[in-house]
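Researcher: Good morning. I'm working through a list of sequences from a screen, and I'd like to move beyond sequence-only analysis. For each chain I'm collecting a predicted structure so we can compare shapes side by side. This is the next one on the list. No need for commentary yet; just the structure.
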Amino acid sequence: MKFYIDELPIIFPYDRIYPEQYSYMCDLKRTLDASGHCVLEMPSGTGKTVSLLALIISYQQFHPTKRKLIYCSRTVPEIEKALSELKRLMAYRIKAAEQDGDREQKLKEQAYTGLGLTSRKNLCLHPEVSKEKKGRVVDARCRDMTNTAAIERAKVDPENNPVCSFHDELGLLEPGNLIPQGIHTLADVIEYGRQKGLCPYFTVRRMMPFVDIIIYSFHYLLDPKVAEQVSKEMSKDAIVVFDEAHNIDNVCIESLSIDLTRPMLDSAARSVTKLGDEIEEIKVKDASKLQDEYAKLVEGLQEAEDNVPAEDDPFMPTP
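Model: Good morning. Structure tokens for this chain:
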């Protein structure tokens, strides 16, 4: 169905809309018009996600200056669910443009691009690295094979410096053209990467400046360490949505916290003790070396003094 909120045409992919959805969309539009902030709440099961996406995408497509949409969700299933909802919405918008006979609008809808990002562990296709069970191990092995130094070493000695072919293939493609236009779920990106021999994770990472909407975890925007690497190129005037925003405080606490277990503390104590012993040992060795050098210096001076001829001694009294 199609209806208007003020001057804004809304394409909604269902035949009817709940009053709560309409009210939600009106509040959201007023916020976008004011470039402000808002906190909105809707009952569960009343179509919050589709209402939000329908309004914001209509807003993006209607206004000439298109602002990127950053949609933050908490879990991978929720990210995939939002991408699936977005994909259905855009298919409906394309169909509506076709029915209206508006070819220009249809091309505009088809060009709208959206991707989702999750961890390397969830997207990795490397036959060995993808078998790792721990995300930190996957991250470490991935970095070891994709950093600039590793790639340079591989050029000189490829047998002893393995790299990831899925990552290397991306370097041969034009930036901003790594994946076709349109909406791609996480499963779509993985399948496309498998078919084309491309890394799904870095495909999404490198496409982020070029897409109209990116859907990813809270951590990619709220965790300073992660955001510096992933979201630093995001436009400052982007539209940012936090789905289930009551989780923000927990995410912030988690991002800036570290868990210390008893074994970790015991291991740290042993390491400190060992380091202290080694430092003392080095001090003793260095003191011994210094004493030896001092003794040699004194001995050398004494020998030099003994070897001076008597007649050349300026302090010898004249007979």
